[in-house]
Write a structure and sequence with these properties.
The chain has 247 residues and is an alpha/beta fold. It is built from 8 helices and 6 strands, in the order βααβαβαβααββαα. The longest helix has 24 residues. The structure holds 3-methylbut-3-enyl trihydrogen diphosphate (2 copies) and magnesium ion.
Length: 247
């Protein structure tokens, strides 16, 4: 049976987030430079985005570049930025054809100007699309996002008369980059690493976590489908007891 047929369409995660990891190791295993892995990672992105759209997921967030990734060798960082531009150029038509809407989270103002301009143009071009929302996390880190939210709250509370008791989860979330995006139901990390690496710390409070040894350039839609099948076997209790959920 086709793997996709095993997925219960009535219990799809609304939002899947992926920490795309293992490009460098994939390339090195093949005796190549790390950037060769990043280039092949684009194929994995393409297939995963198509698979997510085919399934009817609402949101797919991909961790593409963290604020800490600036600390990599300049040659690798430069190559990643160039790859971002060439990928936007090569994938634009497919994204539009598949009705995908592009969004970003992260400090995109801190990206090189030409990357930012390309991104903004594609965000604008796809803004009317009603299919999958593809959220790229670029120059993103969860601690940056949270500290930034706190700064903006303090600045707004100086301007507006906010009662401190009004500050609750809902209030706080409006200051995050993800303010219009539901929390991920499922978080996937590839490459056999078991850590979060400063990704969506607030938003994954109740996400189901799924780890796979597959290195990102080898990841394809069937790997996404496997993660979702695994997700569908879990019971999300949100603090309640199993008995309460069955009532
Ligand atoms: C993920 O692959 C891509 C980015 C972080 C940009 P890595 O480049 O981290 O690959 P490994 O983890 O070193 O193998
Ligand atoms: C996390 O991967 C960031 C992205 C996938 C963009 P890293 O490879 O940077 O994470 P660490 O350094 O191994 O934790
Ligand atoms: Mg890595």
């Amino acid at each position: 049976m086709d793997l996709k047929e095993k997925i219960d369409k009535n219990n799809l995660p609304e939002h899947v987030a992926i920490i795309m990891d293992g490009n460098g190791r994939w390339a090195q295993k093949k005796g190549n430079q790390r950037i060769f892995g990043h280039k092949n990672g684009v194929k994995a992105v393409r297939d995963t985005v198509e698979g997510a759209g085919e399934l009817g997921l609402q949101y797919l967030t991909l961790y593409a570049f963290s604020t800490e990734n600036w600390n990599r060798p300049k040659q690798e960082v430069d190559a990643l930025m160039t790859l971002l531009i060439t990928s936007i150029n090569s994938e634009t038509d497919t994204l539009i054809k598949n009705n995908v809407r592009l969004m970003t989270i992260g400090d995109t103002d801190g990206l090189p100007k030409n990357v930012n301009e390309k991104l903004n143009a594609l965000i604008e071009k796809t803004s009317v699309n009603k299919g999958l929302k593809l959220v790229l996390a670029l120059n993103y880190s969860a601690r940056w996002e949270i500290v930034n939210a706190v700064k903006n709250i303090i600045s707004d509370t100086k301007k507006m008369d906010v009662n401190i008791n009004e500050i609750n989860n809902d209030f706080f979330e409006k200051y995050l980059n993800t303010k219009d995006i539901p929390d991920p139901d499922l978080l996937v990390r590839t490459s056999g690493e078991y850590r979060i690496s400063n990704f969506l710390i607030w938003q994954i409070a109740y996400s189901e976590l799924y780890f796979t040894d597959v290195l990102w350039p080898d990841f394809r839609r069937n790997d996404l489908f496997n993660a979702i099948i695994n997700y569908q076997q879990r019971e999300r209790r949100f603090g309640k007891t199993s008995e309460q959920l069955k009532k």
